[in-house]
Write a structure and sequence with these properties.
- This protein has helices at 13-29, 38-52, 98-113, 115-123, 128-142, 170-176, 269-275, and strands at 56-65, 72-80, 83-91, 94-95, 143-151, 154-161, 178-185, 190-198, 202-204, 210-212, 217-224, 230-243, 247-263.
- Helix 2 runs antiparallel to helix 5 and helix 3 crosses helix 4 (115-123).
- Strands 1, 2, 3, 4, 5, 6, 7, 8, 9, 10, 11, 12 and 13 form a 13-stranded antiparallel sheet that branches.
- Helix content is 30%, strand content 38%.
- It folds into 2 domains: 38-49 and 127-259, no CATH class; 56-123, no CATH class.
């Protein structure tokens, strides 16, 4: 009887390479930072604290919104204690005409002469980062959070409405119907991105006091400038509805901020106006 020959299998060069590739992919799939949903609450608290000591910034803004009448406005913006001072420098990609530039200068001269008008003007436009902070504070209680990997070095979580959450305000009523993603940077515990969508319509007073339509969307992306300072550089808000049967609620905004930099906190309105004067043209970031 012929003896049974056992053949020894040796790994080939190809199989070794495949094993290395597989191991590499597995290593990349493992998050480099913890993905505990409790980190979101820590980040939210950190953002609230940071806003209390927030620096002032200067930047160039390109915005298409209800405020701009649907046109693409390019503005130089400098923040002071009473809020941002904006100088319009281009409309729909076209530089201001001499007549338009003169009218804009007169508008800014009037604000410098009457500082209270700037404060009133900015009160009419709710700060988008303040709105984001309010939503962040609700994430750990009004939503169910789940790890969702890493994106661009930031730890991401999905959030869905928490069925057991009982809203105590109109803002919380709207938030309860939202779902989306949030990402944070570790170990700084700062907000990287926030993306939320209204999944169901929201009614106030059985619809008699008003409503918010389904499909509304709010998102922002933030940029780290240095060890302490972060600033939103992309903002998108699209919300529709009606309040008290009379006032139509329509917030439409898409904005991109570039050349963001920290400025002294004690700038006067006159100094800010000087800093907003046009610089050499740059390529548009928003179309």
């Amino acid at each position: 009887m012929t003896p049974l020959t056992v053949r020894k299998l040796c790994p080939t060069k190809t199989s070794i390479q495949l094993q290395r590739v597989t191991l590499t992919l597995l290593l990349f799939a493992i998050p480099s930072w913890p993905q505990d949903p409790g980190l979101v609450a820590k980040m939210a608290a950190n953002e609230v604290s940071a806003r209390q000591h927030q620096a002032h910034f200067a930047y160039t803004s390109e915005e298409r919104s209800t405020r701009t009448g649907g046109h693409l406005w390019k503005e130089n913006v400098v923040e002071i204690a009473d809020g941002p001072l904006r100088r319009l420098i281009a409309i729909d990609g076209q530089p201001m005409t001499p007549a338009q530039a003169q009218a804009e200068q007169q508008r800014i001269d009037s604000l410098v002469a009457h500082p209270g008008d700037l404060h009133k003007l900015n009160q009419a436009h709710k700060d988008d980062e303040a709105r984001a902070t309010q939503l962040l504070q609700l994430l750990s209680t009004a939503f169910v959070l789940a790890p969702n990997g890493e994106v661009d070095g930031c730890t991401r979580f999905t959030f869905q409405p928490n069925p057991s959450f009982q809203p105590a305000s109109y803002q919380e009523r709207v938030a309860r119907e939202m779902a989306g993603t949030v990402s944070l940077k570790q170990p700084e515990y700062r907000l990287c991105t926030l993306d939320a969508k209204i999944m169901r319509p929201v009614e106030f007073g059985f619809g008699m006091l008003g409503h918010i339509d389904q499909g509304g969307h709010f998102s922002l992306e933030r940029k780290q400038l240095d060890a302490q300072n972060w600033k939103s550089d992309r903002i998108s808000v699209h919300v529709t509805g009606k309040i008290l049967l009379l006032k139509s609620l329509a917030q439409d905004q898409d904005a991109v901020r570039t050349d963001i930099r920290v400025v002294p906190e004690n700038l006067t309105l006159q100094q800010a106006a000087q800093m907003t004067l046009p610089q050499p043209r740059t390529t548009s970031s928003l179309h």
